[in-house]
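Sharing a chain and its predicted structure for anyone who wants a worked example. Both blocks are below, sequence first, tokens second.
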Amino acid sequence: MSVNGFGGTLVVNLPPPLPTLDFRGARVVKVLAGDTDFVSLEVLKFTAEATHPDFGRIVLARPDDDYGPSSILALAPGGHGLIERWHQALRVTVERCGDCPGPFRFRTLEPAEWTAELSRFPPPAQRAEANGASTGGTRYRMTRPIRLGAALDDAAHAEAGTCRCALGKPLSASASEARPQFARIEGLDLTHGAL
């Protein structure tokens, strides 16, 4: 499925206005067994990419070690339509941060979550209008912000601490947490459409 998400806010250690990001990508799923009123979906591949003048390429991707079902596709109450609840661990790579070279690597502190009401699965295809606007597809609404912590195996973040950029230190409210939050993405609804 094609995936587009426009206007997500990147919350980092910067004064307002905070950066906004437009993502484009794809999600490939495999339908697994379920029950009479639902099936599980395993995400085989997910990547979405945005670019920003201060951060370069920002890539969201399914981690290589994320296996098993991550989504439930169920009959809606009353049996009219479908509801998908998608939970996705993410690996996030930021190319740079201002003048500080990257890459900066993050993992979600908990899986990102989206939910969608669908008339069918896969959703209808997305199309681009002459003015560049997308039509079609189905909107997946983000249910909570995507909180980003340093990747557990990433020495690059230790080096980043010497750089005075927006990603070089944890967000102030989380500095004392066991796994501090360095950034978060808010308001990133994703539109999915069949390819």
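Comments welcome. Helices lie at 156-160.
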